[in-house]
TrEMBL record:
GO terms for molecular function: nucleic acid binding. This is Integrase catalytic domain-containing protein. It comes from Saccharothrix coeruleofusca. InterPro entries: Integrase_cat-core, RNaseH-like_sf, RNaseH_sf. Signal peptide: none annotated. SUPFAM superfamilies: Ribonuclease H-like. The lineage of its organism: Bacteria, Bacillati, Actinomycetota, Actinomycetes, Pseudonocardiales. It comes from the Bacteria. Gene3D superfamilies: Ribonuclease H-like superfamily/Ribonuclease H. GO terms for biological process: DNA integration.
């Protein structure tokens, strides 16, 4: 069954993800070809599902790659994603 066009309530989860991808990635990049688009979307999907903080989870990622450091950290490490378009931040333990 196809979803009607421009009907955000028909599939709210997909519409929200597509809107987020457009605002954060594809509107800010010049996509060269289909291979480039697929690699950018794969990298962003990994960031979205593993490292992006979510407010419902008290700003912790849904599936972190490694355990989150304790509250007694001194500095924060920044890791650029997609050539610096998006940055991931993580506390560094003392």
């Amino acid at each position: 069954m196809k979803i009607p066009p421009r009907c955000p309530r028909a599939n709210a989860y997909a519409e929200r993800f597509v809107g987020t991808v457009r605002r954060e990635v594809t509107d800010r990049l010049l996509i060269i070809n289909e291979h480039h688009l697929r690699s950018v979307l794969d990298r962003y999907a990994t960031h979205y599902n593993h490292r992006r903080p979510h407010q419902a989870l008290q700003l912790s990622p849904p599936r972190p790659d490694w355990p989150i450091a304790e509250a007694d950290y001194i500095s924060i490490r920044r890791r650029p994603v997609l050539g610096g378009l998006i940055n991931e931040y993580e506390p560094v333990a003392a």
